[in-house]
């Protein structure tokens, strides 16, 4: 910005010098009178122009600093967004890890695990009394005697375990398998696990029963993806 101040000062000096020379070309008496006035104008002009130009320079520097600060902030936001997108992609494509061990299921991502017959049956019996038929029925029902062991369909973490406050499911368990997939087991007579526990596929998690909105002993089994009920038959092992 110093070059700008110098250029402006030179232009002002040249203009005043030209005016002074013009006055000298006039009458002698005019030269005597106008010379001190011209010199006074030059002195006053430079006296006031200097601080004014300095203030302009200061404001210009402040604007430059604000622009640099805004640019840095935008860069930080952009980098953060890229990191978040990378993290989401890594989670979606990460292999299933067995809880309690470091072993991975080789070459199988969440989407691959649940794309065709990779959930275990929650009971040894495969006798289905009611199929998936939304909006009235969001799962499948298994005919089974009370007290029959209910098995985890896949390894995961117990997200909910207790009594359904709506009275529909009775004693129930909700397992989070990651990747947006969950399984629900309802109308249990007894729960064998609790919220926050890790389970493996085929672990006994409850006993079948007749609690909640139920007309007889059975297991109501649901599969959910991103919070929406889907047909369990698409995911149960053939």
UniProtKB/TrEMBL annotation:
Top-level taxon of the source organism: Bacteria
All residue ranges annotated as the M23ase beta-sheet core domain in the record: 137-232
Organism whose genome encodes this protein: Desulfosporosinus fructosivorans
Transmembrane spans: 6-24
PANTHER family: MUREIN HYDROLASE ACTIVATOR ENVC (PTHR21666:SF270), PEPTIDASE-RELATED (PTHR21666)
Protein name per UniProt: M23 family metallopeptidase
Keyword Transmembrane recorded: yes
UniProt keyword annotations, A-Z: Membrane, Transmembrane, Transmembrane helix
Keyword Transport: no
One GO MF term attached to the UniProt entry: metalloendopeptidase activity
CDD domains the UniProt entry points to: M23_peptidase
One Pfam assignment: Peptidase_M23
